Each structure stands twice: as structure tokens, then as C-alpha cells.
Amino acid sequence: MLASSTRFCLFGHAPAVCAPLTRPRVAKQALICKAARDRDGHQRNDGATALPYVLATLELSKCSDIFELESTYNSNELFIDAISLAAAWVKLGKLYNAKVDACKYKQVTRNLLSKALKLVEEMDLRQISNVLWAMGKMRLDLAAEPLGPYLVEQMEGRLLVVLEEEGLSDPRSAEQLWFGLALCKYDWSGEVLRALLHQTLEAIRQWENCKAVSQVCQQLSTTLRQRVTLDDQQRALLAGAIASAIHADDKDPQIKIGLAKAVGSFLLAADLLQLPVTLHDVQRMNDITVNMPPGLVASEGGLLAAYKLLRCTRLGFQPSQADAQRWYLLLTEGARAPWDAYTVSWIAASLASCRNFKPPPELVQHIGAVVRSPPRGVEEGDLSRLVTACKAWGVKVPDTVASRLSSRSRPAPQ
Asked: Which domain of life is it from (predicted)?
């Protein structure tokens, strides 16, 4: 028997005699093998050819700061392909900090933009979505970059091709595309946005990923609202996707947290995009919110909860007296002290929209005192919301304040 182990070489060539693998080497070889198996789309099935590209991807993925990323990219530049380039962009997006080493980030970004222009025709949907996600994370102003418009033209053409070929069965790609196209500073073509919307709504009911659905809702309702118009059928499809997401089994604690985080975007879309959600669906979103884990309440804060409650009531749902009290605790526990006029006004306006809410005396007294003697510099929008609460709870509003606001209509949450 041979003193050293006999095994097959890394990519299935003839057996070779080599030293036994230690545990760290086994782990590294396993990672390389997995990455190599993931590279089928690159048509580099020969191990000797693929290995440097695989290693480049792994090394780029492990970089811990912008300087290491630049050094690793430069030392592997001959072996940067579409996969390793996407890995570099994702790492850049994760590392990005506009307040630290801005010049270095710009230099690395421009190197990656140049490489992307050369490799865009080789990218598949996942790689394009990775790149766009990173650009969105950085809020990259492509219009101001020397290569930006040229890259956009090429990337839009490639994106249209891969969307048609691959569809959006993978919700991760859809989530990244909507995020990147919305937050990367460029006026993307209507053709690309319409194609993305079409493919999204074709696949969205099959996604088991409420985070991806919420990302679509968030961007359609905010950044891209003026660029993308939904017809009645598309609104119905999006409403159906929201219903599927919120009625999923949430016994798993992580699913419960994910749903609680997503509800804000679902309510935002239902309200601003006039989606045909049912009262049963709105009640379900109410129930998810008032039963949020305590830690999530503290991290989200009272303002976000106030927006959710106000949108529930704008959609025609009225919480029960018990749920209204839960909302009050949610809002007041989540709001960070000391309360400013802006925070108080949204909390008051949202609670005043609940017909079954009985405000405690201390809340009524506090709101009344602010309205009678508005703090210096208080915004008229804040004062208007406070006056709305006063009228709902029978608190007298001074004539001077009422006349000042008489011409203003109730503002919607932003």
C-alpha cells in the first residue's frame, strides 16, 4: 500500500499520488470544488483553466477593507471574469462608507466600472443584479461617471436579454434589481422598467420570500413611483402577492420577524398605489404589527409604527379597542425620548384615526399643551396633525392656531 493517499485530482483527471490533506486543506479544496461546480455557465470545465478564476472569486469575497479589495483585485486582474467581477462589486457595496477614504472608493469603483463595461455581455441575471445592488447600496451617480452612460446602455440591453431568457423565479435577483435600479442615480429606460415589472409580476406569487416582495412594493411606491405606472391587472397581481406573503405560515420566529419588517412596505404600496387589498388582509397586517417581537419594536421606533397604523385606517380598517390600546403601547414604547413635535404629531394623528381608541388623560394634556403653546420653530405640518388629534379628542384649539391652519388639508404620511 502506498504511504501517501491516492485520490482523484481536483477536477476529475487521472488519479494522482499526493500527500494526505489536512483539515484546513480539505475545507479549502471543498470550497474550490463547490465554486468550480457553480461555474458551469462560464464553460470553463477544465480544472486547470478554471482554478485561477475560482480562487480570484474566493479571495475577493473575503476582503475586509477597501485597501485589501483593491490589492486583491489588482493581483488577480488577469483572472477577473463575470463571476469574480460580481463578487468584487458585492464586496464593494458591503464595505462602502462615504465618510471614509472617499478617494480610494472612487478609484476602485471606476476600475470596476471599466471592467463591467468589458464583461457586461458575459453576465447572467444573477451577476447583473449583484452589480446593480452594489451600485444602489453606494447610491452611485452613474450619470456623473465618465463611463456611466456607456455602461448603462450596454447593461440595459443585456438585462432585457437575460430577463427574457431566465425570468425572475429567483426572488433574490428581483430584490437586488429593484433596489439597484431605484437607488442608483440614473434615469433608466422605461423599456427596462416595464420588462422588469412584467417579469416580476409573472413570478411574484411563487416567491416564498416576503423580503423580496416588500422590496418591490417599497420601490414601486417611492423612488420609481413616477416612472412605473400599474394598470388594474398589475395592481391586482401585486395585491395577491402581498396576500400570499402575509398569510404564510409564521410559526418560525425568523419568518415572523421578516413579516413584521415587511408590513410597512406592504401597507405603503396598498395605500399609495391603490392596491385592491381586502379588509381581511389589512387586519392580518394589523395583527402582525401589534404582535411584533419587543426587540423589533425598539429597533423600528414609534414613527414607523405610526405610519403603519395611519395607513391601516386609511385603507378602511378600524382596530378594536383592545388592538387600539396595543397600538398605543407600541407607539409610545417605540418612540425614542425626548419626543419632538414631529414624533408627537404623527403618534397623535395615527391614534386619532382609531375610532375605538380612548386616549389617556396624560396624552390629551400633553397634546393640548403643545397646541396652546407651540414650541419655537414647530412646522405647520406637525401643528396640523396635532390639531387633528385635538379635534378627535375634544380638546379646544385656540382660534389663532385654527385660523392659521384652516386652509391646510390633512397630509398623508411620507
From this structure: Eukaryota
DSSP 3-state of 305 = helix
Burial pattern 400-414, b for ≥16 Cβ within 10 A else e, equals: ebeeebeeeeeeebe
Alpha-helix residue ranges (DSSP H) falling in 171-251: 171-183, 190-203, 210-221, 232-246
Type of residue found at 31: L
Q: Which three cell numbers stand for residue 360?
A: 389617556
Q: Classify 155 as helix, strand or coil.
A: helix
**Dist CA 34 CA 36 (whole Å):** 5
Determine which helix (DSSP H) or strand (DSSP E) holds 17, and give its type and residue range: strand 15-18
Lookup: cell for 285 = 397586517
pLDDT tens-digit series, residues 298-353: 778 788 999 999 999 999 999 999 999 999 988 887 766 567 788 889 999 999 99
The single-letter code of the amino acid at 14 is: A
Asked if 345 contacts 381 with a C-beta cutoff of 8 angstroms, the reply is yes
Q: Strands 15-18 and 5-8, how do they pair?
A: antiparallel
Helix then strand count (H, E) for the chain reads 20, 2
pLDDT of residue 11: 28
Contact 136, 179 (CB under 8 A): yes
Burial-class residue 222 by CB neighbours within 10 Å (0-12, 13-18, 19+): middle
Asked if 282 contacts 238 with a C-beta cutoff of 8 angstroms, the reply is: no
* Separation CA 222–CA 237 (nearest Å): 19
Contacts of 71 (CB under 8 A, 6+ apart): none
The C-alpha angle 188, 194, 197, rounded to 5 degrees, equals: 110
User: Among residues 214, 229, 228, which one has the least CA distance to residue 268?
Assistant: 214
Joined grid coordinates for residue 218: 417599497
CA distance 231 to 227: 13
The position carrying cell 431566465 is 166
H/E element holding 6? strand 5-8
What pLDDT, in 10s, does the model give residues 341-366? Answer: 888 899 999 999 999 999 999 989 98
Residue 28 confidence (pLDDT) above 60: no
Q: How far is Cα 245 from Cα 175, in angstroms, rounded to an integer?
A: 15
Q: How many CB atoms lie within 10 A of CB 214?
A: 23
Distance of alpha carbon 356 from alpha carbon 358, whole angstroms: 6
- Closest residue by Cα to residue 348 from 360, 294, 298: 360
The contacts of residue 214 (CB under 8 Å, 6+ apart) are 245, 261, 262, 264, 265, 266
